[in-house]
Design a protein that fits this description.
It is built from eleven helices and seven strands. It is α+β, with helices and mostly antiparallel strands. Helix 1 (6-19) packs across helix 2 (45-76). The radius of gyration is 31 Å and the shape is elongated.
């Protein structure tokens, strides 16, 4: 779940209570009608709503006020959401439905509830992004801490054959060097199956992911080169590795200026747990709220 996901539980609780006052098709309840009939005796929808208000009314009202404040603030800021954006977030929440229902302990969450909350969360994101001032120095520090996220080091695609004796490793190396390029893959596969004492490295790696004894030779190697046997200790056991450098992918370096907007977005996402409550607190502090339900008049900021 996104960093601000803990807000979702409160939002959904409010939506559930409001939903209890209407059917899924939007029709308003007749509170005199039964919500259930137990051995011939009815429990009215009014009784059900009264219990829901008693148990969850104060918290629900707080959440509904928060939702209204977010919508009003978004309108002031000129923030508008597209149907496509809301639909995409709705699908994300649908995928989390079982987890959310477990956390809330309130039964099944309807699609209507999830769709409404998709809009609310998007508005919260946009407001935080638009109203939060982040200094260049702070963004640069974030970029430095997450340097690897924005810059890809050089990668090498490699395969290896592992044996215990140097003479055997040297013989395999000479055989591979004399193999025509078009038959190299076939020969390497056969020798690996016949001679390798353990499955060797196979795939694409950055140099730091490979044993230290290999790194310098691999940095200097050229694509499609067979390297002479390298002595590498494996769990304290000396082994000799014959490496086939299949491909090299150049490093991709993105200076801060090039990825600044992405860095800012990532910074806000990471800080959302703190920034979202701060935004809501500011909206409550400046709002003029009048309570007209006597039993909930104690609800405060």
């Amino acid at each position: 779940m996104r960093p601000f996901g803990h807000w979702l539980s409160g939002f959904l609780l409010g939506a559930i209570l409001v939903g209890a006052m209407a059917g899924q098709d939007g029709t308003i309840w007749n509170f005199a009608e039964p919500a259930a009939i137990v051995n011939g005796e009815p429990i009215s929808k009014g009784d059900l709503l009264q219990r829901l208000l008693a148990d969850f009314g104060e918290e629900t009202l707080k959440q509904l006020i928060t939702l209204k404040l977010l919508e009003q603030e978004a309108a002031k800021e000129g923030i508008k959401l597209t149907d496509e954006e809301v639909a995409k977030r709705f699908e994300e929440l649908q995928a989390q439905r079982a987890d959310l229902e477990k956390r809330l302990g309130r039964g099944r969450l309807s699609d209507l509830t999830l769709r409404d909350e998709a809009k609310r969360l998007l508005l919260l994101e946009r407001l935080v992004a638009k109203q939060t001032v982040v200094s260049e120095e702070e963004l640069r520090r974030f970029y430095a801490r997450h340097y690897i996220r924005y810059n890809r080091p050089e990668e090498v695609t490699v395969r290896e054959i592992v044996v215990f004796s140097f003479p055997e490793a040297q013989a395999i190396y000479q055989q591979l060097r004399q193999t025509p390029v078009e038959k190299l893959a076939e020969t390497f596969d056969r020798l690996s199956k016949e001679r390798s004492v353990i499955p060797g490295f196979m795939g694409t790696f950055i140099y730091d992911e490979l044993p230290e004894e290999m790194r310098e030779a691999l940095r200097k190697a050229k694509p499609n080169e067979i390297l002479p046997p390298l002595l590498v200790k494996s769990s304290g056991q000396p082994t000799y590795r014959i490496l086939w450098v299949q491909k090299k992918t150049p490093a991709q370096v993105n200076p801060f200026e090039k990825v600044r907007d992405i860095v800012r977005q990532d910074y806000l996402v990471e800080r959302m747990v703190v920034l979202a409550p701060e935004l809501v607190k500011r909206l409550w502090a400046k709002a003029n709220i009048q309570y007209t339900v006597p039993s909930l008049a104690g609800t405060g900021k």
